[in-house]
Amino acid sequence: MTTTPPTQRSKWPMWVLGLVIMIDQIDQNVLRGVASDLQKDLNLSDAQIGLLLSAFVLVNGLISVPAGYLADRFIRTRTVGHTVIAWSGISALTAAMPNFASLLVVRGALGFGQAVTEPACASLLADYYPAEERGLAFSVQQVLTFVGFGLGLGLGGVAANSFGWRVAFLLVCTPGVLIAFFVYKLREPKRGAADRAHLGVIDDDTEEVESLPLFEHGFKRFFTDMIDGLKADMRTIWQITTMKYALIGVSTLLFTITAAAAALPQFYEKQLDVASGKAESLVGLIVILGAIPGVLLGGRLADRFATRIKGARMAIPAYCLIVGNALFVTSYIPNIPLGGVLLLEALGLFVTVMAVPALRAGLSDAVPAHLRGAGFGAFNLFSVIFGQAAASVVVFSLAGAFDHNFRTALIIVSPPVFIGALVLLKARDHLDEDAAKIFEAIIKAMQEQQERDAEDAAEAGEITP
Fold first, then answer.
1. CATH of the domain at 367
2. Who is most buried in 17, 168, 351, 356, counting CB within 10 A?
3. pTM, to two decimals
4. Mean pLDDT of all residues in the chain?
5. Model confidence at 72: pLDDT above 70
6. Does the residue 66 lie in any domain?
7. How many Å from the N-terminal Cα to the C-terminal Cα in the chain?
């Protein structure tokens, strides 16, 4: 470990890890794209479609915390690569499912995939890139997230319309193997490497990162240690004030965002008289046109204003969410022509997603390196249990209660975003202080190591004749 000026870092890891999330999003959102055809073919209700969309999310949330524990203790690149290959195989099984029950089981099983890859990828990005570059790193990852969302929705609608919904699922399972190959080739960084680089201390990349065998002392011992470790990790994370506000705020806003993402194609079809297939393609187009530039701009803002505005990486998301959601709510007003709705929602999405890179970079700044996997796991858990899990079921059930009126359902589920944004504004008061604690701990650890090295050198001098 040496002290040197910062060097130019490769952007390849952020793109590879972004591809992991992209292929996951494609698979996840193909279901949204084929929802109408699937509903007709298997005679499913609106509520059953909502359950299929929620099954993935619910399993994801429940698994993400133990997955985060593993990400903090084992080789993350291998974990991500293995997981991508596994879920590619499971995804292909969706095409063979004959009924609602079997579909529900398979879609739930796919929730394991992102539950593992999400905290591991986030932890890796925070160790590849120091604080001043994390906005860009997370913006690239999130750009590919929205590309995956748009592609999954659009390709799902087109493929289902042309070849049937089963073919749509077969199309998305193959690219995962190639992406896994790229992940395996990534260098595993040491935990906290980017935080030390921020202070001008560069780790030796030639040293191999060590990882214990998964079940070295048996499964029972592993499970017991994991439970004890998770308890300790969650206690520490909950003591980080920024995380308390962020977890609560993000949970409320993701309820609305998830509900809107699930219901917009149905809103277009049933309230705006857009043809099935075309509706999904229009939503996919909005996601790509609005989300990609929004995320990229959000990443630049997150890095540029990180040290210029107090708690910028919490304040920027809060204001973006308020403005973006207001544009979406306006688009639900009756009698606005389709072109106006598309424009309002593209602008709303552009502003809303500007929040994403800053928020993720802010969480990385506030959580110590050795707990970032668990931190992002907790982030996922709260997001799912208190936000995303019920969103699709609620919005589809509301639409059914109002005679398939998705306009009314979307208006009803919109207010939580404003509540979540206000909670995030409270987090800005604590972010800089929590981030400073991490660097203080690093400096203290370095000083203690230097003192130990000096003592060892002194003892060696006394022993040498």
1. 1.20.1250.20
2. 17
3. 0.69
4. 79
5. yes
6. yes
7. 30
Q: Hey, which residues does 201 pair with through a beta bridge? A: 3
**Model confidence pLDDT, tens digit, residues 105-133:** 888 888 777 778 888 888 888 888 887 88
Tell me the mean pLDDT in the region 377-397.
Answer: 75
Is residue 141, in this structure, part of any structural domain at all?
yes
Count structural domains, the chain: 1
Per the structure, the complete domain to which residue 390 belongs is given by 10-194+228-458
Q: Is residue 216 part of a domain?
A: no
Q: What is the pLDDT of residues 172-216, one digit of tens each?
A: 777 888 899 999 999 888 877 777 766 666 655 545 555 556 556
Residue 147 contacts residue 29 (beta carbons within 8 Å)? no
* pLDDT over threshold 80, residue 61: no
